[in-house]
Each structure stands twice: as C-alpha cells, then as structure tokens.
Amino acid sequence: MSAPHALLEARGIGKSFFGISALEDVDFTLEQGEIHALLGENGAGKSTLIKILTGVYRRDRGTIYLEGNEVSPDDVAAAQALGIGTVYQEVNLLENLTVAENLFLGRQPRRFGMIDRHTMRDRSKALLARYGLDIDVDALLSSYSVAIRQIIAIARAVDLSGKVLVLDEPTASLDANEVKGLFTVLRQLREEGVGIVIITHFLDQVYEIANRVTVLRNGRLVGSRAISELPRLDLISMMLGRELQHITRDHQAEPETIDDRGAPSIQFQNYGKKGSVAPFDLDIRPGEVVGIAGLLGSGRSETAFLLFGIDRADSGTATIDGEQVNITSPEAAIVNRFGFCPEERKTDGIVGDLSVADNIVLALQARRGWMRPISSSAKRELADSFIKSLDIRPADRERPIKFLSGGNQQKAILARWLVTEPRLLILDEPTRGIDIGAHAEILKMIERLCSEGMSLIVISSELEELTAVAHRVIVLSDRRHVAELSGRQLTTDGIIRAIAGTGETEAA
Amino acid sequence: MIHARNLPFVTTLAIFIIAYGLCVLQFPNMLSTRVIGNLLTDNAFLGIAAVGMTFVILSGGIDLSVGSVIAFTSVFVAVMVGSFGVHPLTAFLAALVISTLFGCLMGAMIRYLMIPPFVVTLAGMFLARGAAYLVSTQSVPITHEFIDTMLGFYIRFPGGGRLTLLAMVMLIVFAVGIVVASRTRFGANVYAIGGNLQSAELMGVPVGATTIRIYALSGFLSGLAGIVYTLYTSSGYSLATVGVELDAIAAVVIGGTLLTGGVGLVAGTFIGILLQGLIQTYIVFDGTLSSWWTKIVIGILLFVFIVLQRTIIWYSDRRLAERQLKEV
What we know:
- The complex is a heterodimer of chains A (508) and B (328).
- Chain A is of the alpha/beta class and 508 residues long.
- Helices cover 34% and strands 24% of the residues of chain A.
- In chain A, helix 12 crosses helix 13 and helix 12 (356-368) runs parallel beside helix 14 (406-419).
- By secondary structure, chain B is mainly alpha-helical.
- Chain B has one domain (4-327): ABC transporter involved in vitamin B12 uptake, BtuC.
- Chain B is globular, with a radius of gyration of 20 Å.
- Chain A binds chain B through residues 56, 76-77, 80, 86, 88, 91-97, 101, 105-106, 108, 110, 113-115, 117, 140, 142-143, 145, 156, 160, 175, 295-298, and chain B through 3-5, 179, 182-185, 188-189, 191-192, 194-196, 198-206, 262-263, 316, 320, 323-325, 327-328.
C-alpha cells in the first residue's frame, strides 16, 4: 500500500440479470496514476463491472470507495460528477454536433444564461492542445476519423471527471499508428495521476501499456497482478482457466511451389474496380486457405466485396471449373456456391431477433428461393446437427441469436454458410471481438473445412492467425495486391516486410 | 463557411427568395407590406405550432396531437369566454396550463413507458379531438371587449400593411425558439438526443427531463397556437384545424430539419412557413387556380427536400470516406 487509500476500490460487487448471475463477489482496486487492464473472455463480466462503476447499472451487492469514501453512483451523470469518466468503444460522441459542442455538452460555459460560444471554442482549443490536437473545433464531429474522435472523447471524459478514466475497447477500430498516438496520450494522463481502466482483447497492448491486470472469468475474480511479474502464458491461462492449444501449420513441409497442389478451381483474372481495388489475379484451389493481409483501408474487405459480388467488378473475368461466370450480386455468388461472413457481425451478419435455427438456414433458403420453403423438421435437424458439430452454446436452437456471445454468433454465421455446402467461403475477420477459447475453435474449424475440400479466403489483421491457418497469403497495400507469400516465405515478418514494401519477399 | 448540415436551410432560403422574386415579377403588388402583413397574420397559429414541432423533430420524435390540441384550446377558450363569461386572460392561462400538462404527460409516456412518439401522440391526437367535441360540437363565436382591444392592436408599416398582435406573437415565438435551440443547454440537449439517444444518455444528458420538456414545449405552443387561432377566427370550433400537425411537419422539413432528428434550424421552419404562405398568396392573386394547388406544390417541395437531404448526407459521407482513405 503506497497510499493510505486506493483511488477507486470496489468490494464484493454482485449483480444478476433476471436471476442469472453476471458478477459475483468481485473486488477491484485502482491506484492513482496506474493503467489497469481488465481482462476476460466474452461474458466474463468486464462490461458489467465497468457499467456498475460508471453508474450505468446499479449493483445488487457490494461497496464502492472513491479515495476512501464510500460512493454510490446511481447514473452516468453522478459518476461523472464524482470523477469517473468513461469512453465507450461504439457509442461515443454525437456526430451531428461540432467538436466543441461535444466537449462541453451539458456543461457549456454560459453568460447571462446563454451558451457562450466564444469561450466554448477557446476552451475547446486549449483542451485539445494538451493532447497535441490542433483541429477546427467548430467542424462537425462526423468530419473527423475514429482515432481523433477517440482522443476527443478522452479529452471530454478527463476534463469532466479527472480522477478515473474508463476505456472500453479503445483500440478496436484503430490502426497501429493511431494506437501509438492513443497510448502516448494515456501515458501522459498516467503521469498526471489519472487512474485508467482499460478493457481490451489485445494482449500485446496490455503488455505495452498496463501496470496491472485484473482477470475475470464467468463473473468471478480470477486474480489481480502486476504485469511485470506475469508471463504471457500465465495470463492467458488465467483468462481461459486452461492451457491454450497452439495451432501452427508446418509450412516447411508443404510443397514449395503452389502449382503442386493441383489445378485451381476458381480463377479471377484482372479482377478489379476503380476506386476500390486495383485489378488482381487470384487462383484458388480446392482445399486451399488463402489469407489476405494488409493494414486497415488497404482494400482487404473491398477485395471480399468484389469476390462476393457486393461491389460489381468493372474489369476482369471470373472462371469456375473452366466456365466463365458473372458474379454481379451476392445472389449470383450464392448460386455459384460462394459464402461470405462479413466483418461487422452485428450489423451485416446476424438477424438478431430471429432464432439460431432461423439464422442458420437463412442462406440455404435464399439459394433455394422463397417458393420452396425448408420444412420445419428439416430446419430443426440442420440446426441441431450444426449446433452440435460447431459446439454452439447454449445449445438451444430457438433462442434469439442476439442473446448469444460474439463467438457463438460467429459460429452460427459459419454454420449458415456451411449448410449451403459452399465451394468457396470468405471469412472477413472471423475472430474479431471473440474470446480466445472460441478463437482457437474457429481456427480449428477452418483447418477441418479445408481438409474436406472447401476453399477458404481468410481476411485478418492478426498476422499470427494468418500464418497459422493459410497456405498462401496475399498482401495488400494501397488497394493493390502487392505480394503473395507461401511456403517458407510465409512468416509474420515476411508479411510485414511486404506491407512495408521493402521488396524482400523473395528472401526466405 | 456553410456547414453541410445547414445546406438545406440555405437552399430553402434561396428557393424562397427566387420564388418571391418570380411572384413579384408577375404581380408587383405582392411586394407590398399589406401582403406581407397578411401573410404573417394568416400563418401565425401555424408558425407557432411549427416552432414546437421543430424541437420535437430535432429530438428525433414527432407530435401528431398538434392540430387536435389547437382545436381543443380554441373551443375551450371560446366556451369559457362566450358561455361562462370568464375573463379571456384567465381562459388563456387555463388553456395553456392544460395543453402544457398534456404535452408533459405524452413526453413522460414516451420516455418512461418507452412507447414510440408516433403512437403516443397519435393517441393524444384522438384524445384531444374527442375532448374538443366534448366541450362543444358547435362553432362557438367569441366576443369580449378585451379581445377586441387585442385584435385592434397593431403596428402600421409604411405602405398600409399591418403587423398585428397575432403576427407579433409568432415572431416573438420564433425569436425565442431560435435562441433556445442554439444558445441554451436545453437546446443543445435536444440536438444531442436527436443525434443519438444512447450516446446522449452515456454523455450524461438528462434524457428523461429533456424529453418531457420537449413535448411540454410542443403542448404549450400548440395551446398558444390555439389561442391565436381563436383570436384569428373569433370563434372556437372542434372540427377546425384537422391535419395542421402535418402542415407544421411540412414547414419543418422544408425548412431543412432532418426528420431523423439532430440536424436543423428553427429559422429554417420560419422560411418553411413563409414559403407555404407565399404559395397560398400567389394562388389568391392568380384567382383562377384551385386552392388545392397549395397542397400539390407543398407535396412536390417535400419530395424535393427529402431527396436533397438524402443526397447531402450521401455526399458528405462519401467525402468523409475519401478523406479517411487519404489519411491511411
């Protein structure tokens, strides 16, 4: 104990929803001037704990102390007034307001009861200058990138509250440079004595910035340790409660030249779209996993959109088994037995209010056409077999899919396409936002699918994942396909070099 | 610099000026202060109601009860003054209290029972209309020397036009509305709720209190519009002002406010009202056109504006995407 009182201390916090316990007897201590990572798999209770500390939920049991005094934040405004500010990942600020209006919403400087826009503008500028941001504060928030919005949100939260800053997945939609910028800001705030709680899925980032981690599992506290004395393997086993199985492919043993793997069944030649992706050639063999790597905005998802007919190609041809086909719409792609799991699972993938079974048969029904409905007994059978084979939990086909965790939703979407027995399945960020356990299962599933002869295209920003599962990796940069790596060249270093464009792709 | 979000307002203003110019070219008399004065007086009650509607739509809601509340207020005032001999000021006050409380109730239901505004205010519309019938199904004339004094009060423009008390009330309501929307915390909260309810809540905006105040404001202004309408027609009639809420919504949308909420200006609604008034005036001057042409032109304008707003959103999204592409 360095200080007489911790900055924020929670003891014995408990919370249940509709009789189901979400948090049980959880302790959490945040010291002044530390960055504290809160970790756990999906459904571990991180969000619930954060929402209790920041006044969104009311706890059922337990006490919260702020600087030694018992507090009870009943709503967001009360928590803010106490000094606990939050920056959420998705719903953050208001795009329809200006930067200055966002910074001072609810506490606008006033003169004679009227908002004093001049003072607000000056104070906004001064506030953002502390974070090295020099932007037009009278411009709409929507005209700035996510990274800048993030800094604005942090500036608002710190200025508003100043003692405790809670960040929920702050780096999820930032690229590497933006993350670096964000961390500089966080370190600066730590110096100033702010206590920072950060929730993240990225363990690298935890080791880069956090002083301390607290791990939750299934609504219970697993432990709280200083990061310096916690090896990564220990941390992962704390999170999983089991040893993580490593999946790596032995690339050395693979055929040196790609042609050895048989003739390509699907060929795209000179395929491209102006303003989206420069024309590229892509051959896919049966049973092959082709990885697509690149930075955010390099044209990864755009390539998937082209292949699946969401965007219409304006040059090139597509050939399947020697026959030329036109893939001008997702319907055409489905008819040609393509499948696509998009990146934005919540908005583009699941139909939240439909049951798991309905979500699973959706694509099959689309291919059969609406005139030939799938009988409910066939639907039940299909759903049950996939729930079993993919280990979707809870194993209840009638449950609305929105009540499942991210990993299980992803498995259900996979099942949706597997039902249609596709020849080519495109997975855009199949493991984003899901916990490590489900992550490993999905990678295993990819292995199994390609051993059964299905071709897969896997788009991912996690290079280890790509090198683990893919036979070949196409590297994109600036909306061009710049390199193709396979065999011994297929390493994370190789991909990074290709992205950086140092031209070392020939080297082993 | 013109914000993209203010482009619809600027467009409306330009259309109004051009339309007015064309009208004046054909009928030079339309430039007279007499015409302008009448235009303001004729549309005073609609303008007042439209200010309340602007706040409601800015917050992402809708208020369908406006026309019925106007009718109720006008019958209520007419019966109180005409049949019971209550002093007009007392009747006005009572009417305003009732309509404000009615708005409060609708706001509370929207917020705390989480029923969509469309449904709640639709019920409110029937309720208020029914209450108006209950008070009287007749057209009730209203005469009182205090009211005569009020109606007799006006400022004379050079050229013979009159700025009546009713028009003055509307102009004051618009002026106050503009200041409240752009210069108070309440106004900022309205824009915030309309932008994204969940974000606004997480940023500490008092969503409940603000929602109730928005519908209370709309109720109050509907009541005030009802009083103005009573004075304007010198009577109260429960069958009057059917569908006025739709005219108010049209004025708000033509004025550049997004129906989805969060973007728009009270001043835009004023131009929307003027534009509607201008079309009516033109039809009167022409003399051969059916008055239904007002509706047709308003309909066309609405289509044009909805398409325009969509285009602007689409365009600014694309520009943002391009800019972010360059940053990468």
